[in-house]
Write a structure and sequence with these properties.
Blueprint (H helix, E strand, L loop, with lengths): L1 E6 L4 H10 L4 E6 L20 E4 L3 E4 L2 E3 L3 H7 L4 E4 L5 H12 L5 E3 L10 H11 L4 E4 L2 H9 L7 E3 L17 H11 L5 E7 L7 H7 L7 E7 L4 H9 L5 E5 L3 H10 L2 E4 L8 H8 L4 E4 L3 H6 L6 E4 L4 H12 L2 H15 L4 H17 L1
Parallel strand pairs: 1-2, 1-6, 2-3, 6-7, 7-8, 8-9, 10-11, 10-13, 11-12, 13-14, 14-15
Antiparallel strand pairs: 4-5
Length: 368
């Protein structure tokens, strides 16, 4: 089966998926740019092992987007069993889908997720034009279904697939014991008795200011560790203003080092104002961490059930955030239950299950 995939940049989780998908089909992936301008150097450390990765020639128009009209030539020159476009709101994606529509060539749209939201008349019209007309739409969850449908996608053409950045082998076989967590905390220099972990960039959308506000209601015996980029002055000032001696800005860590923080922590928190998915949720689940996130995190909405494997709280509600974290941290039996439930659930959302679903979708759509 010959498959053409068109996307913006070779992000680490996408390359991981493509390398697994390339084992099951003859895969070519077209990229608009070599990397995202706002990401760290680790995003450039990729290897195309099982698929043909092609960087299109084009004019950069944003941090992770370029206009590459040559995209059409790849459809003109070869016959593909499946064409998937994941950058359908970019000029390159719209150029491609416009051509496919005119030539009546079947194609599939796919993205990580989405929330339906109010748009201006013009913006909605443009999105409807870009999204409408596909043969099928690959969705990561109910909110994503609603997003597609709000721009005219027929619901009977929307197909779910499990979205993840985690491989089967990366999921822990059992929760990390209290003794092992303590040993890991000592190695990492974590002096508190328990640890809350947050991973991501210091940008307003991630809601880390809400977590800092919530930290006022957390015991000093619990450390709050932010792993990601360097904090801006706003976050440093909040820490100083509230005298948060148990808050630590760790900085960026490569996967092998980040893994140790996941295993040492007791709770994972993503206080996001909006994440169209939030792959750190998958990662934290694979390490058996209870999850606290917001109702604007699609991964949370899809994968977290209150009291079962974590809690969902309203956006920007620092007190609800603190209450959920404290509830988990104060109950060792609840931590054990949530940890076990997350390890079980993580197996349903892996790179392997994601690939399997794609191959089944391609085969079914080809027959139809």
């Amino acid at each position: 089966m010959k498959v053409l995939f068109v996307t913006n940049v070779p992000s680490p989780y996408r390359v991981k998926f493509f390398n697994e998908l390339g084992k099951c089909c003859e895969l070519t992936v077209l990229f608009e740019k070599k990397t995202s301008d706002e990401r760290d150097a680790s995003w450039k450390e990729y290897s195309f092992d099982t698929f043909n990765g092609v960087f299109l020639n084009g004019k950069s128009i944003s941090v992770d987007m370029a206009y590459c009209p040559e995209v059409v030539s790849y459809v003109k020159e070869q016959k593909w069993d499946a064409v998937i476009c994941s950058d359908f709101l970019s000029p390159t994606g719209m150029k491609l889908t416009g051509y496919l529509k005119r030539r009546h060539i079947p194609y599939i749209l796919e993205s990580d997720g989405g929330f339906a939201s109010p748009d201006s008349f013009l913006k909605k019209a443009l999105k409807k034009k870009a999204i409408g007309g596909a043969d099928f739409y690959l969705s990561t969850g109910k909110s994503h279904d609603d997003y597609y449908a709000s721009y005219g996608a027929p619901r009977d053409k929307i197909i779910r697939y499990p979205f993840s950045s985690v491989s089967e082998k990366e999921i822990l076989s059992a929760p990390v014991s209290a003794e092992d967590k303590k040993a890991l905390r000592e190695k990492l220099g974590i002096t508190e008795q328990q640890a809350i972990l947050a991973v991501g960039q210091f940008i307003p959308r991630k809601g880390f200011d809400t977590l800092l506000n919530a930290a006022k209601y957390i015991s000093n015996e619990v450390g709050i560790y932010f792993v990601g980029g360097s904090p801006t002055e706003e976050y440093v000032q909040l820490k100083e203003q509230y005298h948060l001696d148990n808050v630590h800005f760790v900085g960026f860590k490569k996967p092998d080092e980040l893994k140790k923080y996941y295993m040492a922590a007791n709770v994972f928190v993503l206080p996001t104002r909006e994440d169209i998915w939030g792959l750190v949720i998958n990662e934290a689940m694979a390490f058996g961490l209870p999850i606290v996130t917001t109702d604007r995190c699609l991964a949370g909405v899809e994968l977290v059930k209150d009291g079962e494997n974590g809690f969902i709280v309203p956006v920007e509600d620092s007190e609800a955030l603190a209450d959920s974290m404290n509830r988990i941290l104060s109950d060792s039996e609840l931590i054990r239950l949530m940890s076990e439930n997350n390890l079980k659930k993580a197996h349903d959302h892996t790179i392997e299950s994601m690939v399997k679903a794609h191959i089944q979708i391609f085969e079914n759509t080809e027959r139809n």
